């Protein structure tokens, strides 16, 4: 990257945007029932609510992405990380094309310190080649080229294939610790392999 800093890709929905709370709030508004977050744990999004089509309906309703609450602590932590890292907001917004403008407006309101050059709205995130990816979905984390950090969400609580981060409070420390470990590992000299060395 131009700055020479290590790079971090940060997902929007379920990471800096608290869609979980938004689903619960909108479900109560439309169906009159307050869902307990615990009952959603381990379920995929399409099956997380008693009315199965509800979440898809919300995701395709104008205004949904524009009014998502900000994930607790995200603004402060992202600002903190930007001191030492090149931060990119990466959202697979093409899955819901109507969301592009709303997501852009949402970022302008809540994260105005993120330059437009650091916002990547895309389809398949496997093309993203940053040192870190903070995301809630395995479909993105599994194909990550850098270090994957799985942000806890109701649908991923039963998975343990990636290093988990539970909230924004812990992320700056985790990222800095991993960066330090990586730099130490790189400094360990690998002894040259002598020629004609027996292979076992
Ligand atoms: Mg997400």
Bound small molecules, deduplicated: magnesium ion
Average pLDDT metric? 93
Query: Major β-sheet, in short?
Result: 6 strands, parallel
Distance between the termini: 42 Å
The CATH topology of one domain is given as Rossmann fold
Tell me the CATH superfamily of one domain.
HAD superfamily/HAD-like
Class derived from helix and strand content: alpha/beta
User: Which second-level CATH architecture of one domain applies?
Assistant: 3-Layer(aba) Sandwich
CATH class of one domain: Alpha Beta
Major sheet strand order: 3-2-1-4-5-6
Which range best describes the helical content: under 10%, 10-25%, 25-40%, 40-55%, 55-70% or over 70%? 25-40%
Q: What's the number of extended β-strand segments?
A: 6
Number of helices: 6
Q: What's the gyration radius in Å?
A: 19 Å
What is the overall shape? Answer: globular
Low-confidence stretches: none
Series of H and E elements = EHHHEHEEHEEH
Strand content: 5-15%
Structural description of this entry:
The chain has 200 residues and is of the alpha/beta class. The protein has a domain at 6-18 and 70-187: Rossmann fold, CATH 3.40.50.1000. The chain is 30% helix and 14% strand. The protein is built from six helices and six strands. It has a six-stranded parallel beta sheet. Helix 4 links the parallel strand 2 (85-91) and strand 3. The longest helix has 17 residues, at 171-187. The model has no long low-confidence stretch (mean pLDDT 93). The structure holds magnesium ion (MG).
């Amino acid at each position: 990257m131009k700055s020479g800093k290590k790079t971090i890709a940060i997902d929007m929905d379920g990471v800096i945007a608290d869609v979980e709370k938004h689903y619960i709030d909108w479900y109560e508004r439309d169906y009159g029932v307050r869902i307990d977050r615990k009952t959603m744990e381990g379920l995929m999004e399409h099956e997380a609510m008693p009315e199965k089509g509800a979440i898809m309906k919300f995701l395709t309703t104008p205004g949904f992405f524009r009014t998502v609450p900000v994930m607790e602590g995200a603004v402060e932590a992202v600002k903190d990380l930007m001191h030492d890292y090149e931060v990119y907001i990466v959202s697979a917004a093409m899955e819901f094309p109507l969301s592009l403008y709303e997501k852009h407006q949402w970022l302008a309101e809540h994260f105005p310190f993120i330059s437009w050059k650091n916002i990547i709205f895309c389809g398949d995130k496997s093309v993203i080649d940053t040192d870190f990816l903070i995301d809630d979905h395995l479909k993105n984390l599994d194909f990550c080229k850098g270090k994957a950090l799985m942000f806890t969400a109701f649908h991923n609580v039963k998975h343990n294939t990636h290093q988990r981060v539970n909230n924004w409070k812990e992320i700056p420390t985790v990222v800095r610790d991993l960066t330090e470990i990586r730099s130490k590992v790189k400094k360990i000299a690998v002894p040259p392999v002598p020629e004609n060395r027996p292979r076992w």
